[in-house]
Amino acid sequence: MKRLAILTSGGDCSGMNATIRAAARTAISKNVEMIGYRKGYAGLIRNDFITLDTLAVAGTLQRGGTFLQSARSQEFRTEEGRRKALDNLQREGVEGLIVVGGDGSLNGALALARLGFPVIGIPASIDNDIPFTDMALGVDTALNNIIYAVDCIKDTASSHDRAFIVEVMGRGSGYLASTAAVATGAEFAIVPEVEFDLAEMCGQLRQRHQEGRSNALIIMAEGAGQAHELAGAIKDAIGFEVRVTVLGHYQRGGSPTVFDRLLGSRFGKKAVELLLEGNTGVMVGLACHALVATLLEEVVRGEKRPQDEILKMAEVLGI
Ligand code: F6P
Are residues 214 and 111 in the same domain? Predict the structure, then answer.
């Protein structure tokens, strides 16, 4: 192989730049050229790319987001869009593609692999909802962002005898909410995977207020409902005054943690090695600290939920 390509797709996350950099430099070390498509599959369809030589990726490792930019492409979901993408890859002499993104992006990668093009997927989504990898790229940085914000919120909450509902990301996944709840000592984690009893929660919060506790913290996944609605439902029933903070896209940015820099670098290097060894249609993942390759067919069929141990711990330690 003489020319490979990489793109970042879907919601961005910290660590994507580390992946691009590692993939480019690994390829260059093997005398293979690496190009990067801008704005994910949309750039691939428009044939919008840059050459990723050593200098092009210099100074990117410590930056959040993705310097190639990212997008969610509707056109790539159509057969025509995928054909255009494939034509562009072939016309440019690209012999293998690395796709860095979440479940939708990995579905797209599988579609290209099914058309016979060599593709390797890399899991990147702060939701940590991609199966066959212990951790996706960006999760650790997002969690660190969350705990920094929640620690700040706890200071002000305890100065005013308030309960805070902090809404964190996770469209269909309570991973961030449950893990952050354990890491910040929150009283409750509300997640889409577990039913919760509003009356029981209000009773427990009221009791805490009567015991003279200075604050209460509820961490809620966005996929489990609206924090403002919940605040309205509990405000007259718990004794504490209630405030809401929706952390939003703050969670997704920022300089990647050591973990995400290393994970991104390992994923990027491994993806190039897999392509050069003739592999296709697989995703690189992390299993018990080791890199593993899983068929994209299995990844898109699979499901991942937060570990029961974490869910249980969030409940037990919150008392
Ligand atoms: O999938 C990652 C994620 O950050 C979700 O947690 C969130 O619901 C979604 O992306 C937000 O998407 P957008 O950036 O397009 O608003």
Answer: no
For the annotated catalytic residues, the residue numbers are 127
Q: Is the pLDDT of residue 163 over 90?
A: yes
Q: Residue 286 falls within a domain, yes or no? A: yes
30 lines ligand 1 (CB under 6 A): no
Distance CA 161, CA 192 (A): 28
Q: How far, in Å, CA of 10 to CA of 73, rounded?
A: 8
134 and 146 inside one domain? no
Task: Please count the structural domains in the chain.
Answer: 2
Residues 126 and 265 in one domain: yes
> Is 170's C-beta closer than 6 angstroms to any atom of ligand 1?
yes
Specify the pLDDT at position 300: 97
- Whether 319 shows a pLDDT value over 90: the answer reads no
Residues contacting residue 166 through CB under 8 Å, at least 6 positions apart? 146, 149, 150, 153, 186, 217, 218, 219, 220, 227, 244, 245, 246, 247
Residue 87 has pLDDT above 80, yes or no: yes
